Amino acid sequence: METRASNPPDLQPGPDGKLRSAWALADPLLLDYYDQEWGVPVRDEQGLFERLSLEGFQAGLSWLTVLRRRDRLRTAFHNFVPDKVVGMDEDEIEALLADPTMIRNRRKINAVVQNAAATIKLRDNAGLAELIWSYRPEQEFAPRTAAEVPSQSAESIALAKELKKRGFTFVGPTLIFAMMEAIGMVDTHIVGSYRRGISSK
C-alpha cells in the first residue's frame, strides 16, 4: 500500500500547494510578505534603514501589526529617507503620538529620528549597508522546525554592539537577528519551504 509522505514539521501548503512556514498562512498580508519580501536581499541604505526602523516598531507587537501600519509609517517618516527623517521636529513627533493610525510609542519614534542621524554619519565611513552586511555569518542555518530557528546569533550580538557604538538605539541582538532574516543576510526558511535559498539569489 502506498503511503503519502507527510509535510516537514511546521510547514503547510498554501493556496497554490507550495510549502511555507505556518505563520505565513495566518493572514493574506503575511502570505504576501513571505512570498515577496522576507529573506530577499536588501543592500541599499534607504531599504535597510526602513527595515531596521520597522523591526524597532515591532518590539512587543506582532509583525502583522507592523505590516498593517507600514504604509502609515512610511508616510509618517518620509518614506524612510534618512535626510528627511533627521529633520523631524518635536511638533511632528507630538502629532504622530496623537495620531490613532500610528504605532504610538515615543521611544520607538525617537529612535527612528536618532537612527536617521546615525545613518547619515556612517556615510563618512563606508555607510550603513557595508557595515550591516560585513556581519553576514559564514554559518549556514538549516532549520527543520520552527524551534530550530535561533532568536539571535554571535553576529547579531556583535552587530548590535557596533550599531550602538555608532549612535544607533533600539538595536538589541534579537531585533538585529530578525532584521538579518528579513534582509536575506541569513536564511532561516525551514528546510522544505519553497522559498528556501532565496537569500542567495
UniProtKB/TrEMBL annotation:
It comes from the Bacteria. Signal peptide: none annotated. It holds the Pfam family Adenine_glyco. SUPFAM superfamilies: DNA-glycosylase. InterPro entries: Adenine_glyco, DNA-3mA_glycosylase, DNA_glycosylase. This is DNA-3-methyladenine glycosylase I. It comes from Micrococcoides hystricis.
